[in-house]
Amino acid sequence: MTTERDPNRVYYRAGGFEQSRPILKGADAKETFEFIPIVDVTNVFSPDLEVRKKLAVEIGRAVTEVGFFYAVNPPVDTRLMGFEQSRPILKGADAKETFEFIPIVDVTNVFSPDLEVRKKLAVEIGRAVTEVGFFYAVNPPVDTRLMGILLRMILDVIELIDYPGSVPLNQWPDDVLPELRKVVYEYYRECFTFAKALIRIFALALDLEETAFDETFNAPLTDILIQHYFASPDRKDHEEILFPHADFSAFTLLLNQRDIPGLEVLNANGIWVPAPPIEHAFVVNTGAYFELLSNSRFPATLGIERFSFPIFYSPDPATFVKPHPALVKEGEESKHTPHHIGQRYIKGLVHNAPDHPWVKKLKASGIKEEDYKWELLSQPFAAENGTA
């Protein structure tokens, strides 16, 4: 039996539960946002801490007041974002002063205990990244004999291959789009680097040391999805395929396709504010995990979209998450209950994708919910369970 909904309220899903808030107009309306702020993130990799802190203040304000912001000029190739551009070939008197070779940086001292030595290396890397965007890192702290093995191990983890009895998590349409996998991984790698930098900016925005969340996001859990939810005029609100929701991740990098509107963000008055696509920009929003880590200083704002290409960035699946101690005042009780990221992810996967081949194997294995752990994704189930 369907419960009748109040037309003066807006309904959404947050924390795994359906909730609602009143639609406020006129004298009852609160002071809230009416547009999505735009932040230029060009300096996200600046070697100057003060420059990064200035960016953090701007992002912190956007996340605190809205929960969403446009990150324009991110360090991700426009070609991969679907906004291919061109530039003229300049010669002779028209030529600009630019680089003609890839700089070489000796990274022997990357783990030096001397801060001044690391700062000197940072200046050198910063100059290379700012002027060129690439550099050779010579003498890295990795045995050259192991570098090829390491790459193979990374690919094994990414694709979950070479594990007899396991089921690949990524299902690619190689038969019809053979080039998709390569392009998606190339895009993912650039977004991942940007996301790692944003974590430190978020820490600065919370008045913490920029390394405050490094351990929490040591080997972050990331998901990349391509989503298209078809509108259905005959459906009622409560029957929509995509219900308005808050993301469960720490934050999301959302790539909206140009000329295809769809994303809307809910403000305090229960009014949906549109977020139309902007070229060479991500829509960034904080999710439930950052609301927890920040002790609710960074809220998980509600949104809804119909066509999107999001990357969800969450803490290391081996960690228990809780508000950062510096954000809980003395004598104050934390607003959130700590929980294990890996176990929660598996529970969510089972609930949201019951027909996935891996989920079917997990259910058939007889493993109890309290025994769910992240490692189950990369190892076959025991033969005695009849699933190997």
Automatic annotation (TrEMBL):
The keyword Iron applies. It comes from the Eukaryota. InterPro entries: IPNS-like_FE2OG_OXY (IPR044861), IPNS-like_sf (IPR027443). The keyword Metal-binding applies. Belongs to the iron/ascorbate-dependent oxidoreductase family. This is Isopenicillin N synthase-like Fe(2+) 2OG dioxygenase domain-containing protein. Residues 223-301 form the Isopenicillin N synthase-like Fe(2+) 2OG dioxygenase domain. One of its GO terms (molecular function) is oxidoreductase activity. Keywords: Iron, Metal-binding, Oxidoreductase.
